[in-house]
Design a protein that fits this description.
The protein is an alpha+beta fold and 557 residues long. The chain is 59% helix and 11% strand. A hairpin with a 5-residue loop joins strand 1 and strand 2. Helix 3 packs across helix 15, helix 5 packs across helix 12 and helix 6 runs parallel beside helix 8. The longest helix has 28 residues. It is globular, with a radius of gyration of 25 Å. The mean pLDDT is 84.
């Protein structure tokens, strides 16, 4: 490369790194503390009876007793939690920062539920005017990284979410080290010779399931290395390889009912039960996965008939030449690999059961993932999968966690933005509450259906700048969840708008590092990929709007 060419490369504009984007958002947030006054919302706790009507409304920091079916119940909102007593016996509590509702039944008989709601916005016009640096554990502009990393507890953002990401990443590092996933795919490919088209729905389904269950994304990079030449050898192209792997995972990611890196975090930040609303999301996942399969199969059939029509035909020549000699290579999928896959499946079932029956959250789910990784590693050693030895469990766990350190740090830095704006306490004097009130006023008069669609478009735009699903959840859900309540949309719909906006745009935005890595491996130029993706993005957009509108109309909660 000539010195002139190198100079052009250096001068070429590059998309700023996520950390750089967050830094400048923190700069903006700090400036807002000098311009925007702080404010708060009145908070109440409504006791909703069997008829759906409010029996009594209790103000935050107040305490009140109400009689229901001849029994005395006390709602005590004077502490960090809002406690519910039957006589002198505590029967439940709501953590104020999570804003979860509490439902009480005796046997199968529903009695009542307690719900946190927002009242009027109140401001005295004060401004926080954040300093450049604060000592003694205070929050200044330059403190945002450390304070963001240390904020919260093991149950949520940021420290709990960061630890969760690292543990899950390490666990899957062990699973991938066994080679069970990779060899399973190659085994499926070897069994479909003569029925090549059948491999597309099988792979698409499996990768979509991976995206839905454990947020598979970065893990597709090694699979594209395998699938790109295989798909070309089968008469398709590298675009099909990207579709059945990375794009399938993003469809699963966007429509997931349990993705620990996206919907689970968003639900936790929004203050709703993790794993709630599963059936609607499962239906959505099935619909979008089927749409993706059909779209990919139609395209693949077209390429099979006329390979020269592919946008990747010229670049695929590399694969046609390089892998011709290896086209008949078989993959070994033995008992050990099968046991790893079974371990993964049983672990997923454990999580689903725990979330629904025992309300598992970040600590429990992370522990289950760690168990999956540990058991998979032991199986790998016993069956000598990829020549695994004891130290490989440690090194692969370290490597898996290492791959997600960047994502974990994004969560902490994003929390720093919220802290600069005053935090997420609706009852506290913060700049964020003033912004929320302004957004609510801007959407005032707009129907909840249109407002929900606007929220979806907003999340899609934000994803261009903050691609990390967990980071975007930590950044936007503290804003979107209470905003949803203010404009008459359920928090569940707000989470839905987030996950659809975050997931589907990962298929096309150039700021998505994994997408760009996958395209580089498949030797596809982003501009050509964009040309291919336009029609699919339109289909996904229409489908997303349809599901969001449906969710609003049915009161999805």
């Amino acid at each position: 490369m000539t010195s002139e060419a190198k100079a052009k490369m250096r001068n070429k504009w590059q998309m700023p790194d996520t950390y750089v984007i967050i830094f400048f958002i923190v700069v903006l947030a700090a400036l807002l503390t000098y311009i925007v006054p702080t404010g708060r919302f009145e908070i109440f706790y409504d006791v909703i009876g069997q008829d759906g009507e409010a029996i009594v409304r209790v103000a935050d920091n107040a305490k009140e007793t109400v009689q229901i079916d001849g029994d005395d119940y006390t709602i005590d909102a004077t502490g960090d939690k809002t406690y519910v007593f039957k006589g002198d016996e505590e029967i439940g509590a709501i953590k104020k920062s999570k804003a979860k509702s509490f439902e009480y039944s005796e046997g199968e008989a529903y009695k009542f539920k307690v719900v946190q709601i927002y009242g009027s916005y109140i401001t005295e016009g004060n401004k926080t005017r954040i300093k450049l640096f604060e000592k003694g554990g205070g929050l200044g502009f330059l403190n945002y990284v450390y304070e963001g990393f240390c904020s919260g507890d093991k149950w949520g953002s940021a420290v709990g979410v960061m630890a969760f990401i690292l543990v899950v990443g390490g666990a899957f590092g062990i699973v991938l080290r066994t080679g069970a996933i990779e060899n399973g795919i190659m085994h499926i490919i070897s069994k479909t010779k003569g029925y090549e088209i059948a491999i597309i729905p099988i792979l698409f389904f499996l990768f979509s399931l991976g995206g839905a269950v454990f947020g598979m994304g970065e893990e597709t990079i090694p699979f594209v290395m395998i699938l790109a030449p295989v798909m070309v050898a089968l008469g398709y192209d590298s675009i099909v390889a990207v579709m059945v792997s990375y794009i399938a995972t993003q469809i699963g990611f966007a429509t997931s009912w349990m993705n620990p890196f996206s919907v689970a975090i968003a639900q936790g930040v929004a203050g709703i039960q993790v794993g709630s609303g599963n059936m609607f999301r499962i239906i959505m996942w099935i619909v979008f996965t089927l749409l993706g399969i059909v779209y990919t199969m139609v395209y693949a059939t077209k390429i099979k008939k006329n390979p020269q029509s592919s946008l990747a035909y010229e670049t695929d020549e590399f694969f046609r030449k390089d892998l011709e000699k290896d086209k008949d290579q078989q993959a070994h999928f033995g008992i050990g690999h099968a046991l790893v896959v079974i371990t993964l499946a049983l672990g997923m079932a454990w999580i689903i059961w725990g979330v629904n029956v025992h309300e598992y959250y970040l600590p429990e789910i992370a522990t289950v993932f760690f168990t999956i990784g540990l058991v998979s590693g032991i199986i790998g050693i016993i069956f000598k999968l990829n020549n695994m030895r004891t130290n490989d469990i440690a090194s692969s766990f370290r490597k898996g966690a290492e791959d997600l350190v960047g994502a974990a740090m994004v969560v902490g830095m994003a929390k720093g933005i919220i802290l600069v704006l005053g935090g997420t306490g609706a009852g506290n004097e913060t700049v964020l509450n003033t912004i929320l009130s302004g957004m609510a006023n801007a959407l005032n008069g707009i129907s909840p259906t249109i407002a929900a669609c606007v929220m979806y478009i907003f999340q899609s735009i934000v994803n261009f700048f903050v691609v990390s699903g967990s980071g975007q959840a930590a950044l936007t859900m503290p804003l979107m969840a209470p905003l949803a309540q203010l404009i008459g949309v359920t928090k569940q719909v707000a989470v839905l708008a987030f996950q659809l906006g975050d997931g589907f745009t990962n298929c096309v935005v150039p700021t998505a590092a994994t997408l760009m890595g996958v395209l580089a491996i498949a030797r596809l130029e982003w501009v050509k990929w964009l040309k291919f993706q336009i029609k699919m993005q339109l289909m996904l957009f229409i489908g997303s709007i349809a599901f969001i509108v449906t969710a609003v109309l049915i009161g999805y909660n």
